[in-house]
Amino acid sequence: MASDSTRTTWRLDTVFSAAALALSAAGTAAWLAGWVLPQETLPMRAAMLVGALIVSGGLLQWLLFRLMRQEREARRYLELLSLADDPNSPRTPSLELLPKLRARSPWRQPLSQLTDALARNAEHIQDVEHARAALEIRCRRSAADFARVSSILGGVPEPVVAVDAYDEIILANAAAQKLLGIHEGNGRSLSQATNCARLAALVAEMRRRRTRTQRSEEIEIERPGGERSWYNVTVTTIPHDAQTPERDSEGLQGAVAVLRDISAQRNIQRRHAEFVSSASHEMRTPLAGIKAYVELLADGDASDEETREEFLGVINGQTDRLQRLIDNLLNLARIEAGVVKVSKQTQSLNEILGEAFHVVQPSAEAKQLEFVSYLSPMYLGVLVDRDLMLQTAINLLSNAIKYTQPGGRVTLRSRMLDQQVQFEVEDTGVGLSAEDCERVFDKFYRVEKDQGMAQGTGLGLPLAKYIAEDVHGGKLGVQSELGRGSVFSVTIPAVGRSLDRTGTAGPQEP
Amino acid sequence: MAKRVLLCDDEIHIIRAAEFKLVRAGFEVECAADGQAGWEAIQRHKPDIVITDCQMPRMSGLQLIERIRTTPETADLPVMMLTAKGFELSQQELLVKWNVLSVIPKPFSPRDVLQRVQDALKTASVAN
After folding, report:
1. Do B10 and A314 touch (CB under 8 A)?
2. Predicted confidence (pLDDT) per residue in A224-274, tens digit
3. H/E element holding A289?
4. DSSP A245
5. For burial by CB atoms within 10 Å, which of A272, A283, A396, A480 has the most?
6. What average pLDDT is seen over chain A?
7. Which residues share a beta bridge with A427?
8. Which ranges in A155-248 belong to alpha helices (H)?
9. Residue A44 — φ and ψ, nearest 5°?
10. Percent of chain A with pLDDT over 90
């Protein structure tokens, strides 16, 4: 468009110039004609006047033309300037490329001031653009950092939730979202987001502190499934903003809470306390017997020799009982703690079972029980500690004998399974209920109704289980029917006779 | 007339020692091995005092005491408790609630038990 008007201007100028020239030529010609042509043809003065008018008209046109040319140039210059300003134009010239105006043009000063102003503006815009680009990069980097921190915290299994000074949640990892029920849609305040009032209260309390501090507290929290668990909650205060540690109007800081599930720990503590309680109870009973009879003897209540013998017998028996209890307890504790040196060797399981059978046989005969063994004809090679495995077999056999009525039957069997070796003790005794089947491996657990049948410490089965499972990597299981009998079976990995993995015949480290 | 004592405990030696002492002191003693047998013994022949262990099969000592106290005929029967376990507070309240005369910890002294029984029955006969 600019070029159109420029061309139009040019055309007008051209017309005007041509006309001016033509008129001048005509005027000159007319003036000359006055000289050449006879006086009568044209009034002389009139011709000269016309000529003069035409000449001056022509001159005027020429002057106008010159003035317009300056205006044209100025307009052209402005058009170029506006192009320079328009980023979309394909021909945006650089400000430096604009033609210099003529030194004497009256347009020169305002136009060059305008040019300078535009140049400064352009520079300023460039600076702003640079700043914006840099800011955007920082912003993206910051977002990337935050995403990285979030995903790192996502890998932390402990719930972590952080709030700022306004109690708004600024970060909650996946575990925290799951436990406390915080999700994006929630109200962003911690006290609104979680149902655990104590947690929100603790965080709020910490936020009011004046300095950077940390505090831990055990809080019971309801999990999404409904069950309540104990957590150790550590709350640390954080400044409102890492750059400028300001506080909000009430002087509160932000805080981050890290939760650790201690239900397993508490469980262990509770079971330990129960164990100690049970153990001391078990020990007091034989002691009660000993003390009572000692006192009776001291008071001379045993008037005859027979009674005295009886009392002394009881004291002796109870002492033995206490001794056995303490031995079993220590044995179990030491094996569990890994203090007992376990030395495994490859040997025949049948050989160990044979000896166990032999050891308990007298007590089976004393109760008139049918006591048989069906050991596998195959070689059952196992990598075991002989004493411990013997102990296990004896425990199971003597339990079967204890809890089977006279006239019943106890059977010992062994067999080879695929990659494993198994032995079992079956009895036709009192049997166990389904619930007792589970609890019978607990320390000191003895089925109430059967306690009268035999003496027992309640440690035989836990010990057998520990030996079979933890020491030898096997399994001890029970199947039973109340009133009909039980089958306790031990399964352990088999080793071949030729592949003596221990390498030597001597005792091996586990 | 000799005073009758009922002893309930699943540990035979405990029973035997206490029985021996009480019999020598002139009491009539009946023994039961668990709470259920103890209750049946009370039904057959009401004793003058009951001494029972806490942990027993079939019916525990506390359950037996509750049964005794909630039955009108036996509600005022003097009761003492033997126990090997340390007592928790809630059980302490239960004792006050059920009006148990003494809680005797194991290991116990037969002399001590005899003394308590004699004191308890003296008080009871005075009250009667």
Report:
1. no
2. 888 888 999 999 988 655 544 445 555 567 889 999 999 888 888 887 787
3. helix A263-298
4. -
5. A396
6. 82
7. A410, A486
8. 174-180, 190-193, 197-207
9. -60, -50
10. 33
Decide if A463 contacts A336 (C-beta within 8 A). no
Tell me the per-residue pLDDT of A32-73, one tens digit each, with 9 for 90 and over: 766 666 666 557 777 677 777 777 887 887 888 777 877 787
Question: CA nearest A261: which of A223, A226, A235, A224?
Answer: A223
H or E, element range at A426? strand A420-427
Stated as kind and residue range, the H or E segment containing A151 is helix A108-154
Q: Between chains, do A452 and B16 touch, taking CB under 8 Å as contact?
A: no
Judging contacts by C-beta atoms under 8 Å, the chain A residues touching residue B55 are 281
Dist. CA A335–CA A155, nearest whole Å: 37
Find tokens 């000191």 and name the residue.
A444
Q: Are A480 and A486 in contact (CB under 8 A)?
A: yes
Considering only CB atoms, B13 lies closest to which of A284, A295, A318, namely A318
Q: Give A13-50 as a DSSP string.
A: HHHHHHHHHHHHHHHHHHHHHHHHS-TTTS-HHHHHHH
How close is the nearest chain A Cα to the Cα of B85, in Å? 5
The pairing of strands B28-32 and B4-8 is parallel
Q: Do A311 and A302 contact (CB within 8 A), yes or no?
A: yes
- Answer for the pair A213, A237: CB distance below 8 angstroms, yes or no: yes
Cα separation, A315 vs A300, whole angstroms: 16
Contact A462, A442 (CB under 8 A): yes
The answer to whether A312 faces chain B, any CB pair under 8 Å, is no
Find out whether A218 and A233 touch, Cβ atoms under 8 Å. yes
DSSP A470: I
CA–CA distance, A39 with B111 (Å, rounded to integer): 182
H-state helical runs in chain B: 12-24, 35-44, 61-70, 89-98, 110-127
Q: Are A208 and A195 in contact (CB under 8 A)?
A: no
Residue A445 carries which side chain, given as an amino acid letter? Answer: Y
Nearest 5°: the CA angle B35, B37, B41 is 115
Nearest to A292 among B14, B55, B85 (CB): B14
Instruction: Write out the two tokens for A348.
Output: 């025949």
Which of B13, B57, B111 is the closest to A449 by Cβ? B57
Taking an 8 Å cut-off on Cβ atoms, the answer to whether B84 and A293 are in contact is no
Q: Looking at this predicted complex, what is its ipTM?
A: 0.86
Spatial CB neighbours of A509, under 8 Å, sequence gap ≥ 6: A343
Coil vs helix vs strand at A224: coil
Tokens 């300003």 found at: A85
CA B21 to chain centre: 15
Could you give the CA distance from residue A126 to residue B126 in angstroms, rounded to a whole number?
Answer: 112
CA pair distance B72, B70, nearest whole angstrom? 6
Pairing of strands A420-427, A214-222: unpaired
Give strand pairing partners of A383. A346
Which chain A residue has its CA at the smallest distance from B11's CA?
Answer: A285
> Which one-letter DSSP state was computed for residue A467?
I
Position A164, amino acid:
D
Pairing outcome for strands A228-238 and A345-348: unpaired
* Full-model pTM: 0.55
Q: Between the CA of residue A281 and those of A85, A507, B106, what are the distances in Å?
A: 98, 39, 9
A423: pLDDT strictly greater than 50: yes
Q: Quote the tokens at residue A14.
A: 């051209």
User: Residues B54, B85: contact at Cβ < 8 Å?
Assistant: yes
